[in-house]
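User: Can you write out an input/output pair for a complex, sequences first and structure second?

Assistant: Here is one pair. Inputs:
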Amino acid sequence: MSAIPPRSLLVGIAGGTASGKSRFAAALAQALAEGRPPLSAQIIPSDHYFRNHDPAGPKVTLPSGEAYFDYNHPDAVDHARLAADLDRLSQGEGAPDVLIVEGLMILYAPLIRERLDLRLFIELEADERALRRLVRNLGQDPIDLEKGRWIADYYTVSARVGHIRYVEPSRVYADLILRGDGDFGRLAPMVAAVVRDLYARKRSGGESDG
Amino acid sequence: MGKSFIVGIAGGSASGKSTFAAALQKALVEGQPPLTVELVNMDRYFLPPEAGAPTFISPSSGQVRVDRNRPDSADNARLVADVRARSQAEDAPDAILIEGLMALYVPEIRELLDLRLFVDLDADVRALRRMLRGRGRGPNDPLTMERLIGGINYYRESARVGHQLYVQPSMAYADLVIRGDADFARTADFVADIVRARLKHR
């Protein structure tokens, strides 16, 4: 008796905070849908698996002394539940052609990394990411400087540390590294061509086995 | 040879140069023996646009902007003349601290220095500090999103470029590198010890 082979191709996108992961995931899904042959894609952000309500979740201490959930630690995400969902979603009737999973620790976490057919890393300089993140998190006009300083403090104790310890080193696992300030309209179709080729090979391999 | 011991403090934007210069001044003035110290902020020598300050066309706005992140952004000759004059005056201070982006990059300034310091801090932390300094902003002068984006664009188009081209490479000339996020009360005392020891040997 043989296990049912997973039907969806699994593409993982890792990269630092505000590097452009989710924007690239969207561009890739669009390029897959629009190219020949069109492939259906479903995007799964690992952010949907944060354990931020789990009292045992990782914490950091801010300069103010306040303890806060550490979103930039590998344990911040329930990777076991994410892996189980990937297994479930990639099999069966309604499975998309391609599952795109994106998040900080997608290449760091072995449970996810080992399932991937294609591993991507989006890279962008830390100062640019820090500024993008600041603007994104401030979100109000005029700006509340107090809030800005909190964002900067949290970046310094959590995002920056997690990036240096876990995210940046995980780029060694990448098949392809893309610039986060690249023209995604150009880059996404290139990566889509790679995905299409992998998908075709996976299918023909599956058919010859069957 | 001047009478004053001249210390240069270079480093990136928002690395902590001014804060360190102030901490060093305090350590020199308050330590034993107490020394007289004068502070020279290179920002006060920036050339105004009418005096030939370098400019660039901002890719984000299309407007001509003054570039304050180049070696020729300041009147270096006047700065050197001023420091020379003070260091050789009758009432010359024991130490002169020159603080600015290009203190180690500009050869005429670098050659004046008896001690070369560089305050080093990673670009992401500096970028956030720079944007949130909020100098001179009160309730009637809030930081708007438009102003923040303008500041970020100037950082991208001028500060980061000047940093990579001139400021960071000039760290090679430093006698000592100080972390911009260190406890300056501690490190300033160490540097003050060095200044005192060197003054004794003159």
